[in-house]
Amino acid sequence: MATSSPASLTHPRVPSAQDKAEAAKETLQGFHWALYTVSRGGDGADWEGVRYYRRSVWSMLQEEKHRFEPLAQLELIKSLWKLLVVDPPLSHHNLTGSLLHQLVSLLHRLLGKEKAQLRLKRELEACGTELVFDVKELVQAFSFQLLEETPNMPEYVGPRNNLSLPHLYLLLSTRARRFFAPSSNTELLELLRKWLVVDSTSLFVGAVHLKLLVNTETALSSSPWLEQALTSWQWIQQSPQWSGIFTQLFSRYAKSVWKRQLKHPDADSASVDLKLQEELPRVYSQLLTLSKLARGSSKLVSLNSVTIPPHLQKLFSRFDQASAFAGVAKLIIYTLTPNSIGLLERFFDEVKHFYHPLSSGSWNGPLRNFLATLVAHFLRRWTRERSFTLSNPTSRHSPASLTPELTNKFIDMVLPVAFLQVFARNKQSSKIGGRIFGNLAQIQ
Questions:
Q1: What are phi and psi for residue 295, nearest 5 degrees?
Q2: pTM of the predicted model as reported, rounded to 2 decimal places
Q3: Which of 10-14, 146-150, 312-316 is predicted least confidently?
């Protein structure tokens, strides 16, 4: 039997970079047209086109190093934003729950993380345009979801995505807020005043709007929303959900202040940082309360006790005790200075015996995770500052940076507690204790 020589075998043609670019351009144009058609009241066949092009775009995003042209990506983001946020999704009768989840996830992916967003902003600026979202539109979309006693949005739980639609909109907001206008914080505060009222069933909804939609990287020297948040935080005591909302907001804000001081040592952000420093005693009091270790009278002021409405219980489950402890740990690290480390020392002196290997109770898990998160954030901050100093040797040293003395003091304070965790009877505690030692070793 005759055999073919290797030279006579035909090999499939490998698409070139130009071919891929042309295919991506055609796919984006088709997807954009399909979204435009359904937004004008398309039928079932038009929605099938949306499904087809969504799968194609998602496959492209999964490819390593694949990027769209900035202007094409801008048009696609605007089309998805109009369909999912500006227009009420219930007006599209052919929009199923599964497709709605997939489109929200796609928009979330297209907006990207922090580095991708900064790159997209620079590319659009080079093209003479920009991407700006209206915070009012997202608040309106949120409110429709969160204030309904029986949410009307289609629900979908897939094999890889068990998030409800309100959860997806929450995640979407974390990436959309970087594209809000500079005046968005003022507009947001005016919109939320009607909800941030004691004894109101929408109190938690207003707090979540504030936590998710505030852009903490703009106008650091003038932040009326911070005053509102600090006031609202005192309204409810001994609620992990309420504490989780505000400690996460404050920790994100503290990190923004720290980043600004690191990159621009002459920036006028010291006064803002002082506001957070003044609240630290209350933060530690809250930490003891959530740990169920507080003894004696609490320094927190409880103006009222408001419970989460039943139809919001599932949604607010993500703001639990763990999230509150994580927010507190992050806030402590990014406000850590030679003046504030004394509060942390007093806290560990107070709770050190609860870390003993023979100690057992409901406080074990929260305190263990708090210590691990605290050290992890300290390592991130220390690594970032060291990297910035090495890459910018001529820049002026920021007064907010960790000094060697402060670093050694932190390690000497945490090391004995971490040592106790290694010998804990609980396997999880012992495992986390080893991880803490690993992080401390990187700093040393």
A1: -125, 145
A2: 0.81
A3: 146-150
Contacts of 27 (CB under 8 A, 6+ apart): 53, 56, 57, 60
Mean pLDDT of 44-58: 85
Give me the count of residues in the chain.
Answer: 444
CA distance 292 to 162: 32
* Higher per-residue pLDDT: 357 or 176: 176
* Rounded Cα gap, residues 279 and 301, in angstroms: 13
423: DSSP letter:
T
Which residues does 51 contact at the CB level (< 8 Å), separation at least 6? 99
Rounded CA separation 53/25 (Å): 12
Both tokens of 239, joined, read 């609620």
Whether residue 147 has pLDDT greater than 70:
no
Q: Which two tokens stand for residue 442?
A: 């990187």
CA 338 from chain centre, in angstroms, equals 28
Task: Read off the pLDDT band of 286 (50, 70, 90).
Answer: confident
Residue 275 backbone phi and psi in degrees, to 5: -60, -40
Phi, psi of 59 (to 5 degrees): -65, -40
What average pLDDT does the segment 168-196 reach?
84
| Cβ count within 10 A of residue 193 | 11
Here the tokens at position 183 are 């005046």
The whole-angstrom separation of Cα 165 and Cα 253 is 27
Between helices 341-351 and 404-422, what is the axis angle to 10°?
Answer: 20
Closest by alpha carbon to 177, among 147, 139, 143, 207? 139
